[in-house]
Design goal:
The complex is a heterodimer.
Chain A lengths: L5 H34 L5 H13 L2 H12 L4 H10 L7 H26 L3 H8 L4 H12 L1 H17 L2 H7 L9 H10 L4 H33 L3
Helix pairs in contact in A: 1-5, 1-8, 2-5, 3-9, 5-8, 5-9, 6-7, 8-11, 10-11
Chain B lengths: L3 E9 L2 E9 L3 E5 L6 H9 L6 E6 L2 E5 L4 E2 L7 E4 L11 H12 L5 H10 L15 H14 L4 E5 L7 H17 L4 E5 L2 H7 L2 E6 L2 E6 L9
Parallel strand pairs in B: 3-9, 3-10, 7-8, 8-9
Antiparallel strand pairs in B: 1-2, 1-4, 4-5, 5-6, 10-11
Classes of the chains: A mainly alpha, B alpha/beta.
């Protein structure tokens, strides 16, 4: 049976924590950017769209390197966040979460944007005539109607975050217990002579986690659409 | 009595709308062929479309005045609107749809009012359903109930029967007539069908190509088939 060593358990727990934190932090930004891209008419929208999708097409190592430059202790944003909020990304699990969130972000934004674009805006007009100010109309009509898209985006982002390797290892290295996720641990085990068994166990865990995420998202998505299309 | 006064101009969708009319109590029909600008006109009254020039007042409230740059947002106008296609919220039950206006304005529940309107419209047995599970006629009755329950100062009905077949039209009209006779809310009723207008309206404003061509009583419909 599958018996994980304490070191392997650490990698699994860390991966889950990093992926969950990354997805949770990405969500509000993903909704905001998805909304801007779906509804906004402003100068530079194409640039924003491009920027959001950049992590999808850039080599992950490049994304990781850019994060290192900007979010490292001496980086422009990293120094600011450390001075004002005491937040450190470099070589910490928080940095791994940041890298995972950035890498998953385009996958989160896209379904949310599509869901928002598909919403009948006349329903928002109806909400307005019923006394809902724009913020209330957004939270009581727009957001619930976009829920299937949000769930789909969350799953894709979470899965991407769980499997992130290149950007993470470039940005925060491969420190057991701090930044060594399942992917990084598998990579490490494959580099040492007797590591095949440990790598194999983590591969099984990775497959199980990904499948579980898929099943949960499928169930949530069906639950959400059942709410609209029947009793 | 709450009087609606409209005097506006608007270039919209290739049509030059320049309309001036008043609606006092009862049901004022905006009557005219498709493309006469009727829907644009009610959208301007509701605040969903901004006129280029002119004013709209309801009682002593100025809803829109181009010269004073007043334009009250739709959610502050307290004007009920029954749309042609109902526009019920698909993710909410009938009860939640009916309750939506009250929730948004933060008023306390009023079960008596709720039950009175639900039974007036014959929708009390549908409360747990989703809009998907309703017939066209039921949907429009819920839409009317939803607009009424927000306690509007004015009720706009934009061709509320247009999406229904003949049988269901007959199902709704009696409710509207009852509403006219029982509720003290002035109504603006948009339609291009003279027979419908004859049954419900107390005043008729005839529109064509964005202009008011006549305003008065039901006798204006004499030549309208």
């Amino acid at each position: 049976m599958l018996e994980l060593s304490p070191a392997e358990w650490t990698a699994v727990a860390l991966s889950l924590r990093i992926a969950l934190v990354a997805t949770a932090w990405a969500l509000p930004f993903g909704i905001a950017i998805g909304w801007l891209l779906a509804r906004g008419r402003f100068w530079g929208k194409t640039v924003l769209d491009g920027l959001v999708h950049l992590p999808l097409v850039l080599p992950p190592v490049v994304t990781g390197y850019l994060l290192l430059i900007w979010f490292g202790r001496k980086g422009a944003i990293g120094a600011f966040l450390y001075d004002h909020f005491g937040v450190v990304f470099a070589f910490r699990w928080t940095g791994a979460a940041l890298a995972s969130g950035v890498m998953g972000f385009p996958l989160l934004v896209r379904p949310i944007r599509l869901a928002l674009e598909a919403i009948d805006r006349r329903l928002e007009d109806a909400a307005a005539t019923l006394g809902a100010n724009p913020a209330l109309a957004f939270f009581t009509v727009t957001l619930p109607l976009a829920l299937p898209g949000i769930v789909a985006g969350l799953l894709l982002c979470f899965a991407r975050a769980l499997g992130e390797f290149g950007a993470t290892i470039t940005f925060v290295s491969n420190i057991p217990g701090e930044t060594q996720t399942i992917s990084a641990a598998i990579y490490t085990f494959l580099q040492i002579p007797d590591g095949d068994a440990a790598a194999g166990r983590l591969v099984v865990v990775a497959i199980a986690l990904s499948l579980a995420a898929l099943i949960i998202a499928e169930w949530l998505g069906r639950h959400a659409s059942a709410r609209f299309h029947g009793e | 009595m709450t009087v609606l006064s409209v005097e506006i101009e608007k270039q919209f969708g290739g049509l030059n709308i320049a309309a001036r009319f008043q609606a006092a109590g009862g049901v004022t029909a905006l009557f005219g062929p498709s493309g006469a600008g009727k829907t644009s006109l009610v959208n301007m009254i509701a605040g969903l479309l901004r006129p280029d020039r002119g004013f709209i007042t309801l009682g002593d409230t100025i809803l829109f005045d181009a010269t004073k740059t007043i334009n009250v947002a739709p959610h502050r106008r307290q004007i009920g609107y029954v749309f042609q296609e109902g526009r019920l919220f698909p993710h909410l039950s009938v009860r939640q749809n009916l309750d939506y206006g009250r929730r948004m304005s933060g008023r306390p529940r009023d079960p008596t009012d709720f039950e009175r309107i639900a039974s007036l419209l014959g929708i009390a047995h549908l409360l747990q359903r989703r809009p998907r599970m309703l017939s066209g006629g039921e949907r429009q009755r819920v839409a009317i109930g939803r607009a009424l329950l927000m306690q509007p100062r004015l009720l706009l009905l934009d061709e509320p029967l247009a999406s229904l077949d003949a049988g269901h039209k007959g199902e709704i009209l009696p409710y509207l007539v009852r509403l006219r006779d029982e509720a003290a809310i002035p109504m603006v009723y948009v339609s291009h069908i003279a027979a419908e207008v004859r049954q419900i309206a107390t005043t008729v404003v005839r529109l064509d190509e964005g202009r008011v061509v006549a305003a008065g009583g039901l006798e204006l419909l004499a030549d309208a088939g």
